[in-house]
Give the backbone structure.
Amino acid sequence: MIFKDSLPIFQQIADRLSDEILAGEYAADERVPGVRDYAALVEVNAATVVKTYDVLSSRGIIASRRGMGYFVTPEARDLILQNRREVFYAETLPDLFRQMRALGLTPDDIKAEWASSQTDNHLQS
């Protein structure tokens, strides 16, 4: 895994595991790789993955089952989406709005681009 300097490594790993859950690689009630296995997979110290799993556990995305490991919670997908929407509204949209104002773009311009991209995506499928 290639890490960015802008975020702590444990957070980047948490985002990756969350992406994997959203993509269906780990379903609700399915076991995620053990700490050592995931550490080897992403090439980090096991302590970093422990911190990652602690964070995801505190958010209700994974849960520890004594002697069995960590499992995806039934509500994990909804929690991940809710969190990402909150971040999008709090961080991404304000920046987008600033850029739109600077470029003189209107919501109608964005709607037109959105509609065009949906047509393009449909044709590529």
